[in-house]
Specification:
Flavocytochrome B2, Chain A, domain 1, five-stranded mixed sheet, 44% helix, Butyryl-Coa Dehydrogenase, subunit A, domain 1, binds protoporphyrin IX containing FE, four-stranded mixed sheet, alpha+beta
Length: 526
Amino acid sequence: MASKELKALTREEVAQHNSESDLWIIIDSKVYDVTRFRNLHPGGASVFLEEDIPGQDATEAFFSLHRYEVLERPQYKRLQVGYIQGEEPQINPPIDSGAISKVPYAEPTWLVEGYHSPYFTEGHRKFQIAVRKFFDEVVYPDAQARELDGKRPSQSVFDKMAEVELHAMRMGPGKHLKGRTLMNGLVKPEEFDYFHELIISQELCRCGSRGYGDGMQAGCVIGLPPVLNFGSEALKARVVPEVLSGKRFICLAISEAHAGSDVFGLQTTATKTEDGKHWIVTGTKKWITNGMWADYFTVGCKTEDGFTVILVERVDGVETKPIKTSYSPAAGTAFVTFDNVKVPVENTLGEEGGGIFVMLSNFNHERWVMCCTSARSQRMIVEECMKWANQRKAFGKPLNSQAVVRAKLAAMIARAESVQNWLENLTYQMCNMSYKEQANKLAGQIAFLKMYSTRCAQQTATDAVQIFGGRGVTQTGMGRFIEHYHRTVPFDSLLGGANCKDAAEDVLADLGVRQAMRGMPKNARL
Ligand code: HEM
């Protein structure tokens, strides 16, 4: 219903509509006629006849049981018949086109009024505003819809992202940005740094849909760097523009059923044809994010000289089947079969037998991206819990009046803050170190942060379920983001492991300690 048709009413007028056959209620200054809807109400008809509801203000009753988005659904929006004259809605929509949340600890300090940051500049802030607006308006609605229907992110979203060069920016700073107009010219390619990239990664995961988030080119973030850094000029000239324009898709295909991410245990083979012009690739790959719709596969293969990375295109002999995981099919997670696939040798990425170098070259960056998203997702859970503890009443008092609930909130806030602050420090180091320095000095730091962050995330998920109770394990309604997070968060702890998808967190921690031990001064003694 268009707003011009809505009536301006007084509370006294609304109070007249207080019977079963004529039933109005007020929610946040808007007046709803629920007479006919009452019998269709998913929460039952009787609730509308409770003594403090008919003809009265039901704002508190409503928000202790429903998310704001319920009122935004077209079928419910049209129940509105008027608004209370002289009153304005007081409740902010949770997704408010680019706005910064006013809920304490819902944003990192650099975005909160009155706080200061040694790292982020005015330029970063302008960039963040534009990126958030873009994600709120273009990506969030598609994320919610696709997460439900399990389809891949809409092509229109990929296209819009390409228009502002988001696919290219997600590859981080570098030569691939040259000549591009980033975010409508908000940042020059040579000025784009890891803080800009952090902003993009963190804004993306605010859509709260883990499967969709990965469907949104996660395969490109890990599958394209080997092409960018190790592909021939001809290969790059053909593949990179197609992928960064969101028209064709790429994924990283390393892990196998029997080998996890153990590159030396891989069984997918690549053998040369007699004339030496082609590879023949045969084998299977498992858990391949975006594999379902990938046109290109960056494949780890066993070759005569050891381990080699080869770009395989979707041609005859390549088959992809969906794998059902704890998150939605929107991620396009695939089981991939290569059956005698003929690939030109020009598609070799890096040296033959030098595949481990190709893979390791992106590990730090990949793990750092995971830290960015893990930090932001935890914060989103903090916001959900802060709101719930504030608006939910149990035994006549808000949840936040209970010390046990406050203790859980305190722990999750402390975790979110510590992860973000460590991350910002590391990002600053990345901005100021050469690639080689980063490899030497930051591999351990990033490994520790990745381990710490995903452990914090799992603890926060557990605490959040306790705060939300049954709703924390219910896929619709108030706790839907908590249920989703709790179901999907273990995946984060498995990603980016060092050659092992089992106990990846421990492997990462160990990597950091081993690197630290190598750096011990020879003369250090107690
Ligand atoms: C325009 C007004 C209302 C609309 C459109 C509406 C819509 C809905 C919807 C869609 C659900 C399903 C759960 C969800 O998706 O969140 C629901 C559940 C429910 N509603 Fe309403 N509702 C309205 C007002 C009210 C009021 C005023 C009360 C209480 C006095 C109420 C009590 C409930 C209850 C108890 C549930 C079940 C909640 C649960 O399972 O956790 N509703 N409502």
